[in-house]
Amino acid sequence: MKPYPSTFGKYGVLEEIGRGSMGTVFAGYDPFYNRKVALKVAHPQLTGHEQAGKRFRKMFFNEAHAAGLLEHPNIVRVYDAGIENDFYFLVMEYVERAQTLERYCEPDHLLPLREVVGVIYKIAKALDYAHRQGIIHRDLKPSNLLLTKDKDVKLSDFSIALVTRKDAKETQILGILGSPLYMSPEQINDGPITNGSDIFSLGAVTYLLLTGKHPFVGENFNAINRKITHDQPASVSELRRDLPDGLDYVVRRMLMKDVNARYATGLDLATDLAMIFEELESIHDEDALKEKFETVKNLGFFKEFLDAEIWELIRASDWQTYSKGSVVIQEGDTDDAFYVILSGVVTIDKNGHGVGALQQGDCFGEMGYLARTQRSASVTAKTDVSIMRVNANTIDRASMGAQLRFLKVFVKVLIERLSDTTSALSHVS
Fold first, then answer.
1. Highest mean pLDDT: which of 3-7, 28-32, 42-46?
2. Can you identify the CATH homologous superfamily of domain 297-428?
3. Which residues are catalytic, by number?
4. In the chain, helix, strand, coil percent, each to 5?
């Protein structure tokens, strides 16, 4: 095979970033827009093949044509296409450090539930947009879904997309196309392809991301065809017990054999997923609150609090984290907050000299809380620390009973601190 050139048209080649059965992907540079791009170059032996070459070339430029009609944050953009010395290439959006969802379909690498729902929600919205533009993807599968470094997702590879727009049919590719494991019943049996076909494929992807198992795996094409066309897979809730009931319904509806029983649009699917995501967010927040409660109730400052009062303060207080070396309080600053250390160690410095250290369960900032005075010492995180911050506005959020309990304990701590200071001064004198 002849070597790849250093440029494709005006686009410079930087480095190879991926290779598959159909082509090689390079990181490239677009000098006109001064941006990094991805260059997808078809293997010459495929485009140059006498019998299959024509079909492959048609697929290659079908991707450029179909994806070029789309501009959506969750769809990989195709900017340009061309031929350079018999090399067929596409110029695409460069997605830094992206990886396909294939890895996250393995049972020991499944994404957190909230992330899966978020990913499918975004793809449903992207499909809805594409369908409204007259584009049916036809090959939706984990390897065509890119997860970005920021946990966003992008739909790619429109090489066999069906373009239903009246103004764009010259590149259509007919026949049974796609990846059998993700085909809808009508697709695998060479029936009419609709938007619902993509919904079914997304259902298979969702099933796999949730369970690590494929709903229609079979020994050969005929076995896969039979399962997709006739067999009902086990519900996702049978394979995973931590799923909300609504998600079981959503997956089951996506995988309906009858296209008319599936979601009519990606937007309808996204609407149901949004409600499930809100439910999961609520559960996540409640779990986080339970963790905070278990941390707080065992600290000395809260020994006299009732459980209900601790819950109120947790919901009312600000929780802050500081990395090692970060300044929590700067000497001379004015502040009205009182702090309780939940984890870690802080050091106390006055006039540049170390005067002590505090750890989990200790508190500081009493005088600032009482009188909003300038801080008389600096507090610095000796380790990574987590701190509960309380001020007058915080306490006002709690009930009167919780406020009185806090003030009672606060005064007790203040008296102890003043007593210790008096004792230390008497020893000095």
1. 28-32
2. Jelly Rolls (2.60.120.10)
3. 139
4. 45, 20, 35
